[in-house]
Amino acid sequence: MAGSSYVDKALYTTTNTFGILRKELIESLGLEYAKFFLQRYGWNIGITHAKEVDYLPLTLTEKLNSAVGYHLASGQITDLLSERVLHLNPDDTVKYMYAKGIWVNSYEVEEHLKHFSQSDSCICHTLAGYSSGYTSYLTKKEVYIVEMTCRAKGDEHCAFEMRMLEHWDPETQADLKKISQTRMIDDLNKTYMELFEEKKHTEKVSTFHNNLTLGISQGMHIDQILETIYNTLNIPAIVQDLSFNTHHSIGMTQEQLEFIKEDFIQQMPQTKSGKILIQPIDPMQPSQVDCPNHTRLISPIIVQKQIIGYISFIYFSKDTNYKEEMHYLQRSAVSISLCYLNEKSSLEATENIKAYFFEQLLQQQYTSKKSMISRSYLLQIDLNEDFYIGNLGVSKKGIPVHEASTISKIIQSVIVYLEMHQTSIFITEFQDEIVFLFPKKDDTEDIYQNILKHLQRKFRNYDFRIGLSRVINDIDDIAEAHRQAISSLNINKRDTIVYFENTNILGSLINHQNSDIIVKLAQRELDPILSLKPNKRDEFLKTLYTFLNHNGNLNLTMVDLNLSMSGLVYRIQKIEELLDRNLRSSKNLFELILLIESLIVLGEIEIE
């Protein structure tokens, strides 16, 4: 309207009303945004009042002192205790300014404690903002008040300090500039855009994960999963075992795979044996490894709470937002884990069928050889071809291990190892032993050696040996071949891999037709010793066995057993009395050593 002028009207409100507004701001915006909003609110009021005071014919000092009256008149505080240092230039401009003081009975403290519990930080934001805006406008300098202690957080006073901007530390300066230079709408817009981008990213990651999960539910294999990952992200990826041997890859040539392998090995610390050392990886925060010529993000593949390998994204360019890529890697690792779990479940079901089939062969529980051979084709082993029956001996500190849970873990480890090397085997727990059927191949010896090395690495507290039967190609001979495998380990206790055909003549003389007769004969002749209490029995058996192996030589036996001559002579005499045999007779020596060796070969006794 023509001739009209704007009049700034004073608007009065109660501290209770302001307290409700303050409560809504904190609950809606959070403490951090509410803090800057209240500081800017106080800043703008301070500038408005400073403009009014600036028209008055007062000195700068008098104008600055006028702020106290507003504080008290508006009820913001009941008193102000302060000290100020003000140095002016000749033209009445500010050269240096510093102040400190105490706000007595701050209304903001009362309202905050009314609506919230005790604070962790100072909360007199409008008071600090008002004084900062008021002083800055009048001095034409950026001057800011910072509350140092506050009754809302349990301090004795609401104490503040006032300094020119350049006299605050850099971190405080950055926060203070937000009061005068940043609009809340700008912050809200920035936050909105960040949330919008995060929402888009989250939706993309979720869609990516759903596509992978759908693929797994439809029976995708690991190579197909990697292909889906690469087609979606265009990022080369590799799946490796615990020794960082690559089993699956996408997006790289064989030359590139060899290149990044060497690049990675040179970057990572290694043991003396060449094993790569890597810090434990958090599945929720995969690791980033910066190699000289490439970068890789690594996440563990976890199946049933055990790390079985790693999936890595490979980057040849450094210009990448790895933070976002981490989300995709995590979901890829989960998908690969599910894929392995599916394969593991399928493999376990197949192996259970194989184990049951093999137990039928061992116990000769079949009526048709032709039917069994035909079924073996379906299980990827041709029983018309040559094969071995083997016995996997497990011991701990020289004592045989027959614990079911340990045996089961060892069998599973062998199955998984051979599956990775695409090698078929029948293996099961039979009569507390690990028994297997393995086709004869050109590299059979190497395969056995690698199995033992694998088991030794995985089960460091145990020792492993393999006993093998003669080569057979008739399933009717499996039961006898099983006895040969056991006998080979009992005859030769030195080698880790023992072939029955390489054992001594004793092994050849014992077969399933005469083994029961030999056991009964040996037990009858040695019964006076075998029926003793365990400690005494083992002591006499070892003494007799050692004496017989040294062809009755007392001196060699004494050294081997670490006995005195008198002690050894006493034991020999006692054994002769028990057995009613003269141990000086070569005939008796031969018969007794044959009987003891037979019991050892047949697994009836053990002599350490």
Mean pLDDT score: 81
Low-confidence segments, given as residue ranges, are 1-7
Distance between the termini: 116 Å
Largest sheet: 6 strands, mixed
The class by helix and strand makeup works out as alpha+beta
Based on CA inertia axes, which overall geometry fits?
elongated
Helix % is 40-55%
Taking all Cα atoms into account, the compactness measure Rg is: 43 Å
Work out the number of β strands.
Answer: 15
Number of helices: 21
Q: How much beta, percentage-wise?
A: 15-25%
Domain 4-vinyl reductase 4VR: 102-164
Protein name: Polyketide synthase regulator
Family: Belongs to the CdaR family.
Organism: Solibacillus kalamii
Q: Secondary-structure map with pairings?
A:
Blueprint: H1 15-29, H2 31-54, H3 60-65, H4 67-73, E1 79-88, E2 94-104, H5 107-115, H6 125-139, E3 143-149, E4 158-164, H7 170-181, H8 184-217, H9 222-233, E5 237-240, E6 246-250, H10 254-267, E7 287-290, E8 295-303, E9 306-315, H11 322-362, H12 369-378, E10 387-396, E11 399-400, H13 404-420, E12 426-430, E13 433-439, H14 444-458, E14 463-468, H15 478-491, E15 497-499, H16 505-509, H17 515-530, H18 534-549, H19 554-561, H20 565-579, H21 586-601
Parallel strand pairs: 14-15
Antiparallel strand pairs: 1-2, 2-4, 3-4, 5-6, 5-9, 7-8, 8-9, 10-11, 10-13, 10-14, 12-13
Protein name: Polyketide synthase regulator
Pfam family, one: HTH_30
Family: Belongs to the CdaR family.
